[in-house]
Write a structure and sequence with these properties.
It is globular and about 40 Å long. A hairpin with a 2-residue loop joins strand 1 (about 10-15) and strand 2 (about 20-25). It starts with 8 loop residues before the first strand and ends with a helix. It is built from two helices and seven strands. The protein is an alpha+beta fold. It has helices at about 50-60, 125-135; strands at about 10-15, 20-25, 35, 40, 70-75, 80-90, 105-115. Strands 1, 2, 3, 4, 5, 6 and 7 form a seven-stranded mixed β-sheet that branches.
Length: about 140
């Protein structure tokens, strides 16, 4: 993968449970404050996007992910940032523990949402929304 010093690389995981996905609301004082998205963050140097995605997920939710996690999309932002988006079908509802997660403060709340309930404000220019919509409409 690319040298992440020049290109910012981020990664996140869409957790699907039945016909719903896990969404978290960013804290107001964070980047994308107040917006709903999936747990994600920067991939560190010499870290694979998948390892970065699962590490960030753990740091933000206190949930260790294992098993089958598939890369389903790669977003390239105008800023040059590349975001790897992974998907995991979970057999149970994984509930984030924001209080005990190392970076749990990055989110104010989390929940599971079906396609009709997705809490996006500006759907048209939200790549993550489009990917989630595709996942849930399958």
């Amino acid at each position: 993968y690319m040298d992440s010093e020049k290109v910012k690389v981020a990664a996140g995981v869409i957790i699907q449970y039945g016909d719903k996905v896990l969404m978290c609301k960013r804290a107001e004082n964070k980047v994308y404050g107040g917006q709903w998205s999936i747990p994600m963050g920067h991939v560190e140097r010499n870290e694979s996007p998948l390892n970065g995605a699962t590490r960030e997920f753990y740091e933000e939710t206190n949930i260790k992910l294992g098993g089958d996690i598939k890369l389903i999309d790669i977003i390239t932002k105008d800023s040059g940032t590349i975001i790897y988006v992974y998907h995991k079908n979970s057999g149970r509802e994984l509930i984030p523990d924001l209080e005990n997660a190392k970076d749990g403060h990055e989110h104010t709340e989390c929940g599971y949402y079906s396609y009709d309930e997705l809490p996006f404000e500006n759907e048209d220019d939200d790549e993550i929304y489009k990917i989630i919509a595709r996942v849930l409409r399958r």
